[in-house]
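[audit] Reproducing an earlier prediction to check determinism. Same input, same settings, fresh worker. If the tokens differ from the archived copy the diff job will pick it up downstream; this log only records the rerun itself.
[audit] input (190 residues):
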Amino acid sequence: MKRLKVLLPIIIVILFELAVGILLLVKPLEFTEWVLRIFGAVLLVVSIFYIVRFIIAKVKREEASIIPVIISVITLGVGIFCTFFPQALIAAVGTAIAVIYGLIMIISGIFKINMFIDSKRAGLGVSAISLISAIFSLVIGVLIIVITFINPFTLVNIYLILAGIGLIVEAVFDTVAVIVAEVEKKKLGI
């Protein structure tokens, strides 16, 4: 049970990578559209909350800063756009979305390399699989960004499918790395 508590965050990340990867592979534009709609809905709720809070404070004649209201009006506009017009947003900022996915893959790769180095320094049994996974993430992330800037007019679908494949492969690598690490720990009696 103790091992499960330790491994649970890793298992959740692997399942998340796998789910997002499959969704990007199967329905890339639809999935991105729903992510934008959910993000927009959250922005709407938060923006409306701060605007209402400001109005209530003013009605009660309390001090209230206008800065959060200005920010809320801007985020309200972004929230409306994301929630109700995600297709237009995807078309308008398709390159940015591809770059964001690429950066996420690069950050994931850097994080995994850091974990590999920390594990190696701590004397834990590390496997080459985790390092291969990290390098794969970095390569896919860089590839997505390079392709985006070489041919920004290519369909966003290609970038999203590539990101989906990358996440699925990354989830497989992560799963193998966790299994290998657990086997090594058992051998060492940890």
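[audit] rerun output stored. Observation attached for the diff report: The chain has a mean pLDDT of 83.
[audit] end
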